[in-house]
Write a structure and sequence with these properties.
The chain is an alpha/beta fold. The chain has 4 helices and 6 strands.
Length: about 130
Amino acid sequence: MRITSNYIKILGLKEIFVFGSNEAGRHGKGAAKTAIKWGAIYGQGEGLQGRTYGIPTKNKDIKTLPISDIKKYVDRFIQFAKDSPKNIFLVTEVGCGLAGFDPKFIAPLFKDAVKLENVHLPANFWNYLK
């Protein structure tokens, strides 16, 4: 299994840090704050930003999004990862920190990423995807 470390301190040459964001792109807490050191752009909530990729789990008012909205963002990420096979995407526990979801609700959103060799997922997600 391709497991993302719980504590990512450095990125390898082709690695991209995938973090939970908000639609306003206010990267002030959690993994989003960490992402700033690798190029996350304040004001951009979704997509590739330097050596990071933001997946919104909160809206512009910093309220948690419904799972159906998060799924749309995850689906776009998975398509991006498919289109970027030379990069390795280190997915953090998106939606399971400040957004407050249990991994059992978020992990299934990443089921289509299981077959992508360039996507690494948190151990807690793999527990629900096996």
